């Protein structure tokens, strides 16, 4: 497998002693690509680090790998700051001791997946609903390494046409939703909806008829409003971010602007590409 490193400041970090080399064969599935990216990122973990533990199917591989390396003694003294209840449970199963931002307000390294990555390394996160804790932990990190397979690369945020999540408090959520609609009123093809607890067809049908609807509830007991863009988000992302965050009732949104230090991309052709933030 070819590994190309571009401006990767910590490429010279020692690899964990017992880390076997990534598979030399071409990855056969999307999950295998996620595993390749995750294991490459875990090579950056050093003994004694405070480690931000991401959420999702890609981060799961990183958590499991750190657990394996702790178990075999290749890593020691690592403590994890989980970005969700799910990550806490996964880390506990993997045998990673846990801490939190109160005890460790500075995190050495965070490793997490993303839903979208744009060419400037801005991200969409939170399709699993964990954006608030993820952003808190990752913003508190000296280094935030994003791990993705190449399907997550987009020309601009929102361009996958999948959700750009916004966490809102349940109180007055319908008013908050209308205010979010106002921010994007002039955007053709814009749509938004309150996320359902279940995304299956039955739940959507209920929602459309205005019948009993069970909203998705985050770890922080909030709701999620998902924004959808036909052609991605055009314009100044930091201004759009400010416009969203200015709405009373909005807690946080899933655009992670300028937070990623590096993105590790596992490609179908077997290459692993590391792209670093321009400094
Ligand atoms: O809330 C979920 C998180 O932001 C995840 O990091 C993101 O959805 C990526 O998840 P996955 O690795 O499963 O695609």
TrEMBL record:
Keywords: Isomerase
Chain segments carrying region Disordered: 14-33
One annotated GO molecular function: ribose-5-phosphate isomerase activity
Any Pfam family hit: Rib_5-P_isom_A
Enzyme Commission identifier(s): 5.3.1.6
Enzyme class: isomerase
InterPro entries named in the record: Ribose-5P_isomerase, Ribose5P_isomerase_typA_subgr, Ribose5P_isomerase_type_A
Protein name: ribose-5-phosphate isomerase
Protein's organism: Zingiber officinale
The organism's taxonomic lineage, starting at the top: Eukaryota, Viridiplantae, Streptophyta, Embryophyta, Tracheophyta
